[in-house]
Amino acid sequence: MSVFYKRFTVTVILSILWSFSSYVCAQGIFGHRGFIFERDSLNANTTIFDILDNRIPNLSSVNINQSPNIPSNYSSFIVFATNRKINGFRIRLFFDNKQDSRVRSEELVKDFTEKYPETPAYRTHTSPFFKVTVGDFRNMSDAMRFLKTIERSYPSAFIVRESINPPR
Predict the structure, then answer these.
(1) CATH homologous superfamily for the domain 86-164
(2) Rg (CA), the chain
(3) Residue 153 in this model has a pLDDT that exceeds 80
(4) Which residues are CB-contacts of 167 (< 8 A; sequence separation ≥ 6)?
(5) Of 10, 34, 55, 81, which one has the fewest beta carbons inside 10 Å?
(6) Residue 77 clears pLDDT 80, i.e. is over it
């Protein structure tokens, strides 16, 4: 087997595992007694290897015979893949094109990051509009949950579909 095919095969396998891991963490795994794992962002740092190694008594188990290099290769693949964007949701706090929009958007980002330092805020300019969006949510339900948290402070906020940074 040539080096190209080996690299291609490893890349395909790792991307499938990464996609499956993201899907499992987003959807949750159902067991006989409800969810074994919580949905989405709570398990953003969980890999498929962690999920399959987590054996729960009286439930089915999976035995994996694999090279010990696969989890480390998977981890390095994730590190390189974090530079790309994925489809998701953010919450738009500000969208305006008035003369003072630049200053107002800067103040809003500063105010938001003081109140919610764990949630990223993004200020963009698409001529002629200044926009402030916050968060990186992979699904609408997480975005809606966070919107409910901030709606008193930001009553005009709404959810938008955007390219987001993958959770780390």
Answers:
(1) Sporulation related repeat (3.30.70.1070)
(2) 20
(3) yes
(4) 41, 44, 45, 136, 138
(5) 34
(6) no
